[in-house]
Amino acid sequence: xxxxxxxxxxxxxxxxxxxxxxxxxxxxxxxxxxxxxxxxxxxxxxxxxxxxxxxxxxxxxxxxxxxxxxxxxxxxxxxxxxxxxxxxxxxxxxxxxxxxxxxxxxxxxxxxxxxxxxxxxxxxxxxxxxxxxxxxxxxxxxxxxxxxxxxxxxxxxxxxxxxxxxxxxxxxxxxxxxxxxxxxxxxxxxxxxxxxxxxxxxxxxxxxxxxxxxxxxxxxxxxxxxxxxxxxxxxxxxxxxxxxxxxxxxxxxxxxxxxxxxxxxxxxxxxxxxxxxxxxxxxxxxxxxxxxxxxxxxxxxx
Length: 302
Known about the structure:
By secondary structure, this protein is an all-alpha fold. It has 12 helices and no strands. The protein starts with a helix and ends in a 5-residue tail after the last helix.
């Protein structure tokens, strides 16, 4: 196998590796949130991630973004894809939402992304929105509504839905969708290490005031240490860097095609680890949402 073919093989594996890493984020939130308020956790996560990236950047002599507009666009994506998305998910889980349901709500992001790009006539998505895509959109949200409606106002802590945690989760969904679209449109390719660090710095300074307003202290247990370590090393340095690379390489469609695997895998992990119930309505809702996403992002036939 030549060096080029080996490199191409690794690139093809990147979307699958990204999804495997990304799906653990919702589980980590369940591990960490009983012992910490969400924004304190995220501020420490952002700070430690920055401290990991800076020596790497300095040692490898990585170039920073060259223009003010590059810095601005990276800061905007950092606010959306770190502060907005992670803040929403972590706050939703802290407010009692199950990690499986949080993953399902955010899992409709490929539908919103594909529909938006289709409405703009993006050829990579298949042109204007067609009947199949509208059917997928309807099925995706029907599946989501099925699961949410069965849990609204009911369930034990860690597996319930109320207006507060639902608003947080929907805010995370909007943020990750907008951040993905914004980065693809405005962020010019640059080194993933310096780009990620700029995004993290923006997220840190925006999240810090929210963390200072939280009265609950961080209880440093073994679960919290483990959640923080994986959040920094696996999710931020690994997952977020892969996401940046995939978007810049134009492989967003590949990520989207696998994204609908995140909710069912997260639901199964949450059932095994936290005993979050998986009812027939949960399974049906997940299947409907997955079918809807697959219909929306499936390339049109030639």
